[in-house]
Design goal:
heterodimer, A: 85% helix, B: 187 residues, mainly alpha, 9 helices
């Protein structure tokens, strides 16, 4: 099965069709998707600001990261739970949308980065002694999350 | 000049028309608005969850206030600037949009909550150095803030939809009243 056929299959799912045929469902799910984005970005920022030496800079990195992680995972789950239905309802449009592919690429990369390198570094207080490492991580993470948010918004414009 | 006439005039100014008709400017401003919203709302959620005692319990409330509030203010300023530009691009339609009006009312309430928290609740309860779960009044302020900001984002998202717009008649009389819409004047 080629990719477009898979997207067509997604488009034809009952859930996708239900959302498409409803006036309220898409906006309502979209709004929750945005709230999930906020929760995700907030829990990321808590740690990123700390890595830059601002924000809650009196707290150890590892402790902040541990507090933020359940919220981060919660935010990501919320975004997937709402994002997948949204995708099903307009997967053909997404297939031909440049922004959608940018978003998916950034999302794929940021998830891998967050749950491998970033998690390993923030589990210890290593980044405190190596501020350059911290800065590079913040730039990587925020750039990729920016790509996710930008791409997501731009799907709606195309 | 009535507000309706004023926003009608504002929408005819060259910069408003330019923004409205631009291929990219509007979309870029809208993206900035969403991104700063995520920044602002994300930190507000962390702040409110701390007031509720659901997260960061080992961090004193005072430290969260002192260290995070400046960042939320910075993000809020960018959000207001980008939001004002979005309004300026489509003034009359936004002014008459029911979700926009709802959002503005909620924003005033959220501002009131911020003022109440910083002037009454926060100093009185001396939670600056307190770790753990804050007293009830502080938790209420956090819950009210969280509820209001969620409602603000949801209503903000809904401004994009024209279900209750003045040029889409017939609408229920109450809708036309709430949007200051005079259907005869439109048609």
């Amino acid at each position: 099965m080629d990719l477009l056929a898979f997207f067509q299959w997604c488009y034809d799912t009952p859930l996708g069709e239900t959302i498409r045929n409803s006036t309220w469902l898409f906006p309502a799910i979209e709004a929750v998707h945005l709230l999930g984005l906020g929760l995700t970005i907030g829990s990321v920022l808590l740690v990123e600001l700390r890595l830059l030496g601002v924000g809650l800079s009196r707290q150890p990195v590892a402790q902040l990261a541990a507090s933020a992680e359940p919220l981060l995972i919660g935010g990501i789950i919320l975004m997937f739970m709402t994002g997948i239905p949204l995708f099903l309802s307009e997967s053909i449009k997404a297939f031909y949308s440049f922004a959608f592919w940018i978003k998916m690429t950034c999302l794929f990369l940021v998830l891998i980065f967050t749950f491998t390198i970033r998690r390993r570094v923030t589990r210890t207080n290593e980044a405190t002694e190596r501020p350059r490492l911290g800065r590079v991580m913040v730039i990587t993470s925020l750039t990729l999350w920016f790509g996710v948010a930008w791409g997501g918004r731009w799907i709606g414009f195309s | 000049m009535s507000l309706l006439a004023f926003f009608g005039w504002l929408g005819d100014t060259p910069w408003s028309v330019g923004l409205h008709e631009s291929q990219y400017a509007y979309s870029i401003i809208e993206s900035v608005h969403v991104w700063t919203m995520a920044f602002f709302f994300g930190l507000v959620v962390m702040f409110d969850l701390r007031l509720l005692g659901w997260t960061l319990r080992t961090v004193p409330v005072g430290e969260v206030v002192v260290r995070l509030v400046p960042w939320t203010i910075a993000a809020f300023v960018l959000m207001v600037i980008s939001g004002t530009l979005l309004f300026y691009a489509i003034p009359l339609r936004s002014f008459q949009n029911i979700f926009f009006r709802f959002k503005m009312i909620l924003l005033v309430l959220a501002g009131l909550n911020v003022w109440l928290f910083h002037s009454r609740v926060y100093p009185k309860f001396a939670v600056r150095s307190v770790e753990g779960v804050p007293p009830k009044r502080v938790r209420i302020a956090g819950a009210v803030s969280l509820t209001l900001w969620i409602a603000i984002i949801v209503s903000g998202r809904m401004i994009a939809y024209n279900w209750f717009d003045c040029d889409r008649q017939p609408q229920a009389a109450i809708i036309n009243f709430l949007t200051s819409c005079i259907p005869e004047a439109v048609n």
